[in-house]
Design brief:
Elements (H helix, E strand, L loop, with lengths): L2 H5 L13 E5 L6 H12 L2 E3 L9 H7 L4 H21 L7 E3 L6 H8 L2 H14 L8 E6 L2 H11 L9 H16 L6 E5 L9 H13 L4 E4 L4
């Protein structure tokens, strides 16, 4: 056993004892789905994940842009609402849940892609469906610089994402930053992933777990220099 393991043993206490429903959020390519999976696997939590592969309009949106923006957005909205409605019908006090999307951030995408008339229609539908979504007990917001997001999306090589423009990825990252700067609905842990890799590095993952377990108040920030 190396010295790092001796001084920093793996975290065994579960953040789900304190936060029964944890959502990991962040822009495309930042690693939210992978981190949600890792949390669920470590502590035996149920998973509620976005299903982008089921959206028949998404690839066309990435390829052709605004022409398919409204249909893409509405499909995701109804999909997410149905997933969260099912979650709300479960007994959250008897199980732990990890997810990779927050319904309240859904309009963030709509404002980037829809024209004024489409956005007004979308907002009416969103406002009618929003009350069906449970508020999580903790949100982990993963952030990274725009250049980092672009590089990560290109590196992971998902076919439908090859047509995503760099300008869209940059605008999306900035929109997330603005949104979570003002977010107050649930406790929030902001994690700077520039030099921290809790997904692939178990030591970094344990560092993050310690931050969650030691968090006081409704907002925390976790970062590390190069």
């Amino acid at each position: 056993m190396n010295s790092v393991s001796q001084t920093n043993p793996p975290v065994t206490a579960s953040p789900f004892e304190r936060y029964r429903h944890i959502v990991v959020e962040g822009p495309i390519g930042v690693g939210k789905t992978s981190l949600a999976r890792k949390l669920a696997q470590r502590f035996g939590a149920s998973l509620v994940l976005e299903q982008p592969g089921e959206n028949p309009f998404l690839e066309r949106f990435y390829r052709e842009g605004r022409r398919h923006a409204l249909s893409t957005q509405l499909f995701f909205l109804f999909q997410r609402v149905n997933q969260l409605r099912d979650l709300g019908q479960r007994d959250l006090f008897s199980q732990s849940v990890a997810g990779d999307f927050l319904l309240d951030k859904d309009p963030l995408f709509a404002r980037l892609t829809l024209d004024d008339d489409e956005l007004a229609l979308y907002q009416q539908i969103f406002d009618s469906l929003r009350p069906q979504a449970p508020v999580p007990d903790l949100v982990i917001y993963l952030q990274a610089q725009p250049d980092t997001l672009v590089e990560r999306v290109r590196r992971r090589g998902i076919a439908m994402e090859t047509d995503i423009s760099e300008s869209y990825l940059r605008a999306l990252g900035e929109a997330y930053s603005r949104y979570f700067y003002h977010y107050e609905d649930a406790p929030l842990m902001i994690v700077n992933t520039e030099f921290l890799n809790p997904i692939d590095d178990d030591d970094d993952f344990d560092l993050l777990l310690r931050q969650l377990l030691e968090m006081r108040g409704r907002r925390g920030f976790f970062s590390r220099g190069q």
